[in-house]
Specification:
The protein has two domains: 3-166; 174-290, no CATH class. The longest helix is centred in the middle third of the chain and has 18 residues, at 149-166. Strands 1, 2, 3, 4, 5, 6 and 7 form a seven-stranded antiparallel β-sheet that branches. It has a two-stranded antiparallel sheet with strand order 8-9. The radius of gyration is 20 Å and the shape is globular. 37% of the residues lie in helices and 19% in strands. Helix 1 crosses helix 5 (149-166) and helix 5 packs antiparallel against helix 8. It has eleven helices and nine strands. With 291 residues, it is of the alpha+beta class.
Amino acid sequence: MNYKDLRNLAEKVIERLEPIIEGMPIRLNRNFAKRTDRYTNGWNVQIGWVDGWDKCRFEIWLDDIPGWNKMQFQYCVSFREKNIMERFLEQINHENMFGRVASLFKDSDEEQSKLDKKNYGKPTLELNPNTAGGWFFYTINDLSKNVNDALVERIVGFYVAIGRALSENQKSVPKPDDTDVYSAKENRKQVVTHLRRERNPYLSLLRKQQDKYQCQICEMKFQDVYGEIGKDFAEAHHIVPLTQLDGPQTVSVDDLITVCANCHRMLHKLQGGAEDIDELKDMLLMRYEVR
């Protein structure tokens, strides 16, 4: 992969972001210049920035990471000062949006550049010592071998999640019709928390991509039933019991399950407990056996 691939990826991401970010404090940058990083022998482009945050930039990188000997994509938010980054991450409630940080700042440049493969796709905090005073990065490292639609969707989901978290419009709670789906639950606050986590655009996308958009209850794939219009369509259900949603939690992709719209609605009609998944599977199995 080379700079041409990076620029192609950046253009695809901006094209997808433009119609989505209306009302969010995000500004896109189409006139990005080629920037070479001497530390990683790679390139980066700035695709946008955040209004109201000094030197807070959206960037996509293609780096030759030491220890891996191959070029890899990264998408990140960069900051000129560490305290600004810390305030920013606190405001977006980053662990609830993207999960716990997998890697923190290390003592040496070589150590911080090596990331365990299992932590790819998880957020990391990095320092680029090659720049004057250093730049700080909240980064997702991706193992994609080329520019593809799934990679574009992950990057778009990452920046949209940030934009929604920063947007004043996201302070509103889900509509009453949405909270009524859990008819068996009296605690509306727990239901609202549940729905917000299901609608996390980044973790939900990762879950659906990992499950190949197949319902984990009835095994339906929308594309098999509806053809091309159903491609890459499914929903995500937050499986952590509602009774555990009172206190602060760190959410991860493992807390979600891919479901079709029908099974999702049925899950919301159950008790909101850990047993709901197996209970609904048993209901379906019993009906199939009767037939």
